[in-house]
Amino acid sequence: MDPNVILNRIMRLAKLDTTVFDEVRDDQRELVPALVIAAVAAFLGGLGTFLWWQIVPSGKPESTFLNTFILGSIFLAVVYGVAILVTYVVLAQMYKVQADLQAMLRTCGYAAAPLALIVLMLFPVIYPVFAIVPFAMLFVMMIYAVQSATGADSNQVVMSCLIGFTVMVLVLGLIAGVTDIAKAPMGVGAFGILFYPH
Fold first, then answer.
1. What is the pLDDT of residue 9?
2. Element (H or E) spanning 7, and its range?
3. Which whole number is the average pLDDT over 181-194?
């Protein structure tokens, strides 16, 4: 695992060079780096949410560090993993596409990189951009990642990713909306701030 190669790939993804997914798809050594990228992106997202609670609102939930940074980051990473699994199941069961789950984990791990932008939520006024846009970018990158990993028809990939992504957003939104916002592991970004009484 060469950190320079990984950093180079992340920089290429930032320039929307989706050939990165083709490079990591069949390389079994890329599974751990892909999972690390997804985890780091989720924790940067959690850090951004924690910083938002420190800077922007007038009040804040109990145990902000634990709820938004630690639990929120872990929860985001786990729910993103569930979204990948749902996408895989939809492709395999509904569309009967031959898909390699590990190849999808490798490509989708790299696709999680945009979540790191949530760390920029700490800036007042423009924080909604960094609460919402990274999730839109994640969805787009996820489509490219799954397309590369499976070679499935574009419509099948988009619908499968949409279902997986919808599950992710639904679960994060439900946790933020139906639990006590002062104590819930709110995930990150919009899922905490949308339901917080300002």
1. 95
2. helix 3-14
3. 60
